[in-house]
């Protein structure tokens, strides 16, 4: 009695040890094969931080800048030309004194130019040429004050005095979508419509196939059974291929970066997947109404339209919307393998190290996927 | 006149559901088929309109051979044969009116019916049929919002749309409580009085006595009784339902 108990416990311990060894070996093998470099994950942190910072600062908007040039005349020497009265308010330039002799130093003041704004200060010579003085930035009140030496070259010529000009890039211009945002939006629309087109075509193909692959509709007689098994096998075969692999192959055929490759791959995947889902929905319908409508003398198409369609319509709509949602996700990725759309844009920006543009694309993907997910859930809730 | 000759049905799995069954149903009769569950009643009724293909034997409807009719011929025969079911077999998501109209499919223009377009006469006929079974006010509701008794009345209205000359009723009241059973069977009785031949399978013997003009008893696919309702005495009853069976009356439930 005691002995057998002992034996059983020993055997249990033995099997547990064996299991532990097997699991250990499997883990060791997988590490050997994939060679994960965990150290790298830490040593690469500074680089990762840089990339992340750019990714998290997506390029979305630009401020439309307004360039304003203000100026003031400076007759050299005094009396050689009229002096400027100067404006009392608004962006303006003042000079003190209002005229000067050669080699004197004057004080130039910029007023109400906007705070922290880049100013390029220069001479506009009587002959129309310019001569740079310096670049500066306005203070917190939007003013600046700088001393400028009057050089002989700025002397009045033919009754025309030189002017001091400040070119100011004024803030307060309208905020507009950046070029990147516009490109991303365009690419996103390509992706959404790619998914929409693929879902529509896929659904249209899936509907007849699903009836052929439904045992309660097709598996009647020898021919029916043959068709049923053929279509079902075909759908299963196609479903076992990854859309990415298929998109790559199509991209090789019709050209990289073309949405057409992505659409082809998606249509096939959608057809197979919806065909299978639809056929299961058809197989689960109540046979009673079909029997009843057949008994009225209706033909086969009438039986399907009056007995089958009302039973499957909500399922079909809900599956189709769900698959559109899936297709948008897949088609964002499909661009990476040459399928066009937002994925194509994203992969190109990443390859060009333009991470903030990539960040814009990522943000767009997240928003669109989230919005569609929400939308499709809402619609599907209504259908049930 | 319906004539069934040597009807046998063997299902693909080998079950013999009907074995050499022969009988005749003169026009205007209310024939009730009785028998235990599994005795072959449903199979028999479905062989008559070829929802089930008989294995051998012949069925003649006014001297037309149903069993060898082509697909288009069988559709023309079916549209004169109404059928109602134990589970009502309505399309639950469709409206009551659409369910009733579907009874007219055998007569309808195939293309228009596929578009869901129905002639005004058909719509009026459907509303009249619903009026006749007392649920005209439910026409635009979804079928599954109706109670069991109301659903079976929709089933009858659907059969009425066929202008049937024969009505097959497969345990039409087995899913309803006994009080409702009479109200449904009275509609069938009314139709029968108007000249529609009725073949109806039933469970409860008192219903048989009340409505049948003639009775057929099935046991394990074999016809073990044919006669008038009054001829079913205790011995006959035991023959049909087996030794240990008790006579169950709808009224006693
Ligand atoms: N589709 C089918 N395949 C195989 N056997 C069936 C099928 N339908 C009915 N049967 C069998 O045939 C016999 C008669 O069934 P049925 O006609 O439904 O009897 P009832 O309507 O009197 O209950 C039963 O034994 C049943 O199990
Ligand atoms: Mg039955």
From TrEMBL, chain A:
UniProt domain ABC transmembrane type-1: residue ranges: 188-376
Keywords, in A-Z order: Cell membrane, Membrane, Transmembrane, Transmembrane helix, Transport
Membrane topology field: Multi-pass membrane protein
Coiled coil: none
Segments traversing the membrane: 12-31, 187-211, 223-241, 247-269, 326-346, 358-375
Gene Ontology molecular-function annotations: ABC-type phosphonate transporter activity
GO cellular component: plasma membrane
Subcellular location: Cell membrane
Main location: membrane
Origin superkingdom: Bacteria
SUPFAM superfamilies xrefs: MetI-like
Protein family (similarity comment): Belongs to the binding-protein-dependent transport system permease family.
Protein name per Swiss-Prot or TrEMBL: ABC transmembrane type-1 domain-containing protein
Organism: Thermanaerothrix daxensis
From TrEMBL, chain B:
Tagged with keyword Cytoplasm: no
Entry coiled-coil feature ranges: none
GO MF entries: ABC-type phosphonate transporter activity; ATP binding; ATP hydrolysis activity
NCBIfam families, per the entry: ABC_phnC
UniProt entry keywords in alphabetical sequence: ATP-binding, Cell membrane, Membrane, Nucleotide-binding, Translocase, Transport
Organism: Thermanaerothrix daxensis
InterPro entries assigned: AAA+_ATPase (IPR003593), ABC_transporter-like_ATP-bd (IPR003439), ABC_transporter-like_CS (IPR017871), ABC_transpr_PhnC (IPR012693), MetN_ABC_transporter-like (IPR050086), P-loop_NTPase (IPR027417)
Name of protein: ABC transporter domain-containing protein
Lineage of origin: Bacteria, Bacillati, Chloroflexota, Anaerolineae, Anaerolineales
